[in-house]
Amino acid sequence: MKRYSEPVPATGPAWVKSSYSGTNNNCVEVAVLPRGGRAVRDSKDPQGPALAFAPGAFDAFIGAVVR
């Protein structure tokens, strides 16, 4: 697997939580990165690590999960 990274803007990405999350904090949040990639993090640890997906790789990931 090839590593992918993108610079994160100084103001930080806008993280979005699923509408299925409800009011609990056991969620996954997703952000769009400047070059079209996506980042995913655990909402319980917003200062913790995030996974970065290359453009297109996130779509493939979601497509595989939805099947």
UniProtKB/TrEMBL annotation:
A Pfam family this chain is assigned to: DUF397
Domain DUF397, residue spans: 14-65
Q: InterPro entries this protein is in?
A: DUF397 (IPR007278)
| This protein's name | DUF397 domain-containing protein
Specify the domain of life of the species encoding this protein.
Bacteria
